[in-house]
Amino acid sequence: MGLTAAACVVFVAAMVGASFAAVPLYGIFCSVTGIGGTTRRVAAPPTATLDRVITVRFDTNVANGLGWTFRPAAREVRVKLGEIKQVSFIAENRTDHAETGTAAFNVSPFQVGSYFNKLACFCFTDQTLAAGERAELPVTFFVDPALAKDPDESNDDTITLSYTFYPKAGPAAPVAELGGGAKGG
């Protein structure tokens, strides 16, 4: 029975560790591949701009457990392929205490994710807001002109960039702080 209990403890510890590693590992995977509607992070802008115009719409969400509001400064923008565009999102902590959140994102239609490139973004970076604090979070992006050459994407003129802010898990509180300490008697 001791071996089974030890195996269960190791398994639970591994699962907890994997849950904390999921967001950073997902961020690395997404920035490299652009798979599943995720964008790529690039260091340099494109060298050409095409006349084809794409509408980029913004969707924002806040997961349960984070007392924030989160919205785009503008619901959508129109950009030419290859044009560099900066947009802003507004996050506000509606609680009476500081909270930290981390944003994940995706792009739809999913197959267009590899053409949507970010030069700067707040995603996968902890954002801490004091009680009542409001922050402007910029994103700089472009849609790769190579989209125009992809025969499977010739009809995609609207892209949706969606962000969800998740609460950042803090360190576990000691048992005494949770009220579960031993009581004398």
Structural features:
185 residues, alpha+beta, Ctag/Cox11 (Pfam 04442), five-stranded mixed β-sheet, disordered C terminus
Topology:
Elements lengths: L1 H32 L6 E2 L11 E10 L5 E5 L3 E5 L4 E9 L5 E10 L7 E5 L6 E3 L4 E10 L14 E10 L7 H4 L7
Parallel strand pairs: 1-7, 2-10
Antiparallel strand pairs: 2-4, 3-5, 5-9, 6-8, 6-10, 7-9
CATH architecture: Sandwich
Strands ordered across the widest β-sheet: 1-7-9-5-3
Measured on Cα atoms, how large is the radius of gyration? 21 Å
**Multimerization status:** single chain
Class in CATH? Mainly Beta
CATH topology term: Ctag/Cox11 (Pfam 04442)
Mind explaining what this structure looks like?
It is a single chain. Residues 31-38 and 181-185 have low confidence and may be disordered. This protein has a single domain (2-170), classed as Ctag/Cox11 (Pfam 04442), CATH 2.60.370.10. 19% of the residues lie in helices and 37% in strands. The protein starts with a helix and ends in a 7-residue tail after the last helix. The longest helix is centred in the N-terminal third of the chain and has 32 residues, at 2-33. The chain contains two helices and ten strands; from the N terminus they run αββββββββββα. The strands form two sheets. Strands 1-7-9-5-3 form a five-stranded mixed β-sheet. A five-stranded mixed β-sheet has the order 4-2-10-6-8, with no helix packed on it. The protein has helices spanning 2-33, 175-178; strands at residues 40-41, 53-62, 68-72, 76-80, 85-93, 99-108, 116-120, 127-129, 134-143, 158-167. The protein is an alpha+beta fold and 185 residues long.
